[in-house]
Amino acid sequence: MLAPVVAPEAVAGLDTSHLVVADVRWYLDGRDGRAAFDQSHIAGAVWVDLENALAAHDQPATEGRHPFPTPEAFAASMSGLGIGDDTVVVAYDDTGGLTAGRLVVMLRMLGRPAAVLNGGLDAWVAAGLPTQTGPTTESTPRPFTATRWPQQRLATAEGAQQTAAAGGAVIDARALARFTGEQALIDPCPGHIPGARSAPWSAVLDDKGELRSVEELQTHYATLGITDADTPSVAYCGSGVSACMNILAMEHAGLTPARLYVASWSGWSADPDRPAELGQP
Known about the structure:
This protein has helices at residues 8-11, 33-39, 50-53, 71-80, 100-109, 120-126, 157-165, 176-180, 214-222, 243-252, 264-268; strands at 5-6, 19-23, 41-42, 46-47, 88-92, 114-117, 131-132, 169-172, 197-198, 233-236, 259-260. The strands form three sheets. The chain has a five-stranded parallel beta sheet with strand order 1-6-5-2-4. Strands 9-8-10-11 form a four-stranded parallel beta sheet, with helices on both faces. Helix 5 (100-109) packs across helix 10. It contains eleven helices and eleven strands. It is α/β, with parallel strands linked by helices. It starts with a strand and ends in a 13-residue tail after the last helix.
């Protein structure tokens, strides 16, 4: 299996006949990811629309802002991007893996070879590797088999609650101010899942925006109560996107990847009967 994170220089060593480089830029502040792609992107990359290719619509609010698409819808999106059953995918963004991680986790859940580009577009440019501007030609569709999402890699709201109650690690990838409830933003109510621990996704990166070393990550997760590969854990965030970087960082560190609670806080807080905890545990 491909490592969950690859350096820009290593991409050249992959089998280019079965390689797709995916640009998954999307911005919480409303900036246009497609416009950023057209302005400059890795040569030959395809742009992935997070909202439509990696998420479903018209779901109950308790499913969160970015519920997983059906296996059939996901397969159709991947096929249209030129990603097939035998394709190796390297995904990137310009925010440290914040959104690229979502595609990579979804593919790796299905046993497909996929990795985040370490350092993203900035690292690629710094390495002197080629970029291009403007839209790209349409991809040639490739067969991508629809496969059910593996339930052992996912967590429900009840599963997250039970994990926390049993002493497992439920880690929240949002910024600390959102975790404590100081900042609510667009969610129905402030706070976090009772028993959860604050684990901002950006903490897995160094000051260059690249993934920290294995040793640093192991220390980081140990402070969150994840001390070995057997620690039960669930990862969540605002809507199941940034939590994916915690999942990939855990795998990189040799730990069992946390189960993803896709609905995350946007789904949890949409149910008025679910409790919310404020402040630090």
